[in-house]
Write a structure and sequence with these properties.
alpha+beta
């Protein structure tokens, strides 16, 4: 039997993740969440909502990290609701562990990307030709998860996070991080007062380490510039990297920001707030308002950039599973 994709159903999820009534636009709903947070002057991928010094990559019940847009969506949920736990479970997963979602708790949205075969007369946007000649349509299915802090009786499996220990001397160079970034096959030069990536000569320029206020400022900025470098034609070939259009420049900066956040969460560094923070927020808001799928595309490209860097660093990264493309 051929199942119809979730976005064709008129409905929204209740506490058990089932469809009830009122059709919802997943792209618009998550984009609106991002706009609300950014309008308040906050980057949802760098806000230290739990007092931690590094971004906290959200985890499935199995401990496998979420990816792409689901990382951003759950970061927003954790930030706005004050959750410190990185663990997220469905209602049924909580029950299977002997736990219970507390009465009145509201879940958070995550999405699953897939494709469905349809007849020619039902094909829609995003379709592509399959090997057998049939049309394939990409779709998103939404489901609801709850943070471990919303669930009773699962503390033994998902204990509360340990207290944050502040670094004694954050201004010292980190030999381990130097080694990780040193494995990235991109030329790195130190001079001047502005960090940037130069596509034509394929190299990253950074100010001297001593010019930064903290160690994390240096390494998070380096992660940002290396994320730009992943867009080179010989790597991920991201068109926005070399485009002269203002809107593409904003999109490329958003990809680099998100990619740096994903890398930072994986290797343990705090994100650096840029001096031109306000100007970038304005450009990102414009991009999000003009295209409800912008944040989805940026998150997918950022995840690819982070995966490319982490694989060269030799750092662990989750394999692609079910997150939105």
């Amino acid at each position: 039997m051929l199942l119809r994709p979730a976005y064709w159903l008129k409905g929204k999820e209740n506490i058990m993740g089932r469809i009830t009534d009122n059709r919802a636009d997943i792209y618009q709903e998550i984009t609106d969440q991002m706009i609300t947070i950014i309008e308040a002057g906050t980057r949802p991928w760098s806000k230290s909502w739990n007092g931690a010094s590094t971004p906290n990559i959200p985890l499935r019940s199995t401990g496998v990290p979420y990816r792409g847009i689901n990382v951003l969506s759950l970061w927003v949920a954790a930030m706005t609701k004050g959750y410190a736990s990185p663990h997220w479970l469905t209602f049924k997963q909580a029950l299977a562990l002997g736990g219970c979602v507390r009465k009145g708790e509201k879940g958070s949205i995550v999405v699953y990307a897939n494709k469905i075969e349809v007849c020619d007369d039902k094909a829609d946007q995003g379709r592509e030709q399959g090997e057998d000649g049939k049309k394939q349509v990409a779709f998103l299915k939404r489901y609801t998860v709850f943070n471990a802090e919303q669930i009773d009786d699962i503390e033994a499996k998902y204990p509360a996070p340990a207290p944050i220990i502040t670094a004694i001397n954050p201004d010292e160079r980190d030999a381990e991080l130097d080694a990780l970034f040193g494995r990235v096959p991109v030329t790195l030069k130190h001079h001047g007062s502005q960090p940037y990536y130069q596509p034509s000569s394929d190299h990253v320029v950074m100010p001297d380490y001593t010019d930064f206020n903290t160690s994390d400022d240096y390494y998070s900025t380096l992660a940002h510039e290396f994320c730009h470098a992943t867009g080179h034609v010989d790597r991920l070939a991201r068109p926005t990297l070399i485009s002269a259009k203002r809107e593409d420049y904003a999109r490329e900066e958003l990809v680099a920001e998100l990619g740096a956040a994903f890398v930072s969460g994986a290797i343990g560094i705090k994100l650096h707030d840029r001096e031109d923070h306000a100007a970038y927020l304005t450009s990102w808001l414009s991009a999000l308002r003009n295209d409800k799928r912008c944040i989805f595309t940026a998150a997918t490209q950022a995840q690819a950039a982070a995966d490319w860097l982490l694989s060269r660093m030799g750092a662990e990264t989750a394999q692609p599973l079910d997150d939105a493309a």
